[in-house]
Amino acid sequence: MAALVAGEAEMTVLSLAAGATAVPSGSDDRTMVLIGFLAFIVLSLLLCVLAGPEDDTAADFYTGNRSLTPVQNALALTGDYISAATLLGVSGLVAMVGYDGISLAVSSCLAVGVFLLLAGPLRNAGRYTLGDVFALRSPGPSSRIAAATATLAVCLPFLVLQLAGAGSATALLLGLTSLGAEQVCTVFVGALMICYAVLGGMRGTSLVQIVKVAVVFTTMLLLALLVLRHHDFDPGALLTAAERGSGLHDRYFEPGHALGDGAAGRLDFLSLQLSVVLGGACMPHVLMRINSAADGVTARRATRYAITIMAAFFLCVVIAGLGAAGIVGGQKVRAVDSSGQAALFLLAGELGGGTSGFAGSVLYTAVACSVFVTVLAVVAGIALSAAAALAHDLHAHVARGGHMSERREFRSARWAVGAVGGLGVLLATMAQGRDLQSLTSLALALAASTILPACLYGLFWSRYNRTGLLWTVYGGISCTTALYVCSLSFSGTPTSLLSGHDFHLIGLQSTAVMAVPAGFLLGWVGSAVGRRARPVEGAGAGADLRWRERVLVGARGE
Length: 558
What we know:
- The protein is mostly helical.
- Helices cover 77% and strands 0% of the residues.
């Protein structure tokens, strides 16, 4: 079950730690991995310095002055959606449980499809952050505080999980096993993350994402082609071999193997897919990314390109997962790592003629570097979006009332990156050694139950007001957190956050199926209460006019 939670979130990097021990690597392999890591670090830092903000303005730091082309934006957006769990978690699920893993890959693509519906209106309504979108309908500090709260509530769990997993994985790949070594590696990865965001801003981190997509896509395409060549480019032979090698035989392409085929298991899997599709469509760093597009038309074009790239990428992931089932064998994948997250490393070794061969070492290094690239690029984007919420929404607009120069806000944003990164590193080092995978379930459910309803209501429902927004955000956060504490993700299983305790009341790992409807209901009820308490007129009418000009008129222009 924990493996499925990791795949659900598409943000966990603990899969890399599992993969690092999956394939026995000697000193030569470790040297190749280290060289690959250092090459990417040097290249990405150089890109951040060269492509960083050209002037000390908030617009340049937050959006790169919207200078990226639609294709570049599409590649960067694809990079935001591709995580380590996509590489290792989803392919491992395909190798072990077949249909459920393929279904999860499709759900990940659907998340970008849902985002396509929001991309144009969000770009027309927004400026830099989520707070700009909220403030368009309900001006004032309360809406920006709510936006910053929602952004930090979603970003911090992901950031801590990514950094802790990256530290453990880096230590393992370098042959270090002590807790102190993992903590040192966590601090190192965190320092790199801060450097990327501070030096590069949106343009620099976007170029890092583009390089990441090129590396990861090339690696997965190579694995997929090698798998197809192994089966003489016969898809039927590949499916037959996967079915036979998985250990499930004719049940391999039937649903219900991941979380059980009972009512509770099917409900849990439905909840998981709901959180992937809806939560993945409204992550704060993805919403901030779309503001780097020139206009709503460009934003939608970039998203359409991203959907095409994602579809091709997930096709390669599924082919690699099927190849792992047929070539490596489902039983061997489970024996090495019960979560299946080592499948790609095992497949690379088999396709390369064994881990002792040079080809196997190259493939293993390519997979390891791809995941490492993914980790660094994702955490930099998350840190940038959280820092923007602090600097732009809280500091510039709440504390200073919107009267702050571009240059001062630019400096504030850089300090905020350091603050967010430092807090993330501190929490990650303190949590080192604990199983944090369940935090992904919490973060995605929070995004789907707070940010998504607030954006949909704010963009498309003219009667949505400040009370509805506050009920959506604070009520959604409270409800989702309470459901998480009562679920199996928090206690009751060996992979729960509090694995030594059992006080769960809900027998599900993902509670999005309850949290998301609650978030939408709270927004509707809150808006009704707000209208009765204070009819919309005066300032409210002015806000509604601004909303119509920015969103509705802009949408017709598309």
